[in-house]
Amino acid sequence: EVQLLESGGDLVQPGGSLTVSCAASGFTFNMYAMIWVRQAPGKGLEWVSAISGGGGSTFYADSVKGRFTISRDNSKNTLSLQMTSLRADDTALYYCAKGSSGHTTVPDDPWGQGTLVTVSS
Amino acid sequence: DIQMTQSPYSLSASVGDRVTITCRASQGIRNDLAWYQQKSGKAPKRLIYAASNLLNGVPSRFSGSGSGTEFTLTISSLQPEDFATYYCLQHYSHSPTFGQGTKVEIK
């Protein structure tokens, strides 16, 4: 059974940094792209970032480019999102999702349960 | 960025009604479009890929159509478990974008 478990969400001050992670199990991790999607409280979904199965290709939304870095450790089946220069509008529930192939930006099912990042002073 | 304009923002419908949701892209995206369903407090679930292909296990009352810039998701006979928010996602560009969502509520 595919399982994704996000962690690392926290309250952080504007301008601060935070890394959220996603532990994956139940599938051959290095064969699938991984994607981050976020959802601000009471708002819609926003695609954030994706990384290919081997880690060689990364993609970002314009809203986070230059501030966020996606990475993966295929030896530990772990996906990470390093976030810097955080702003209030980065406040959201951050979901990780598995792609349907090694090179895709499209979230497949299942998704994790999300980890909450709150940016506030 | 490719903008996805979804309509309506919300709708009220009764069990058994036919429901249609539209997504318009700011430029042509071929059929690089997926539809997701999100129930309250839950993670989204993908229903349709490549604009018109149902994923395994998705009831046949759901259907998708369109290509280029205009796409529709249709629920032929709304069931109680279909009350949720629906999102389109374009993945033609390397920076995919979701529509704003359509909340389907009980009339």
Q: What structural keywords apply?
A:
heterodimer, A: mainly beta, 7-stranded mixed beta sheet, 4-stranded antiparallel beta sheet, 11 strands, globular, B: 107 residues, mainly beta, 0% helix
Task: Provide structural commentary.
The complex is a heterodimer of chains A (about 120) and B (about 110). Chain A has strands at about 5, 10, 20-25, 35-40, 45-50, 60, 70-75, 80-85, 90-100, 105-110, 115-120. Chain A has about 120 residues and is mostly beta strands. In chain A, strands 2, 4, 5, 6, 9, 10 and 11 form a seven-stranded mixed β-sheet that branches. A four-stranded antiparallel β-sheet of chain A has the order 1-3-8-7, with no helix packed on it. Chain A is globular. Chain B contains no helices and eleven strands. In chain B, the strands form two sheets. In chain B, strands 2, 4, 5, 6, 9, 10 and 11 form a seven-stranded mixed β-sheet that branches. In chain B, strands 1-3-8-7 form a four-stranded antiparallel β-sheet, with no helix packed on it. The interface between A and B is medium-sized, with 23 and 22 residues.
**Number of helical segments of chain B?**
0
Shape of chain B: globular
- Average per-residue pLDDT of chain B, rounded, comes to 97
Report the biggest beta sheet of chain B as strand number plus sense, adding barrel if it closes.
Answer: 7 strands, mixed
The largest inter-chain interface, given as chain pair and residues per side, is: A-B, 23 and 22 residues
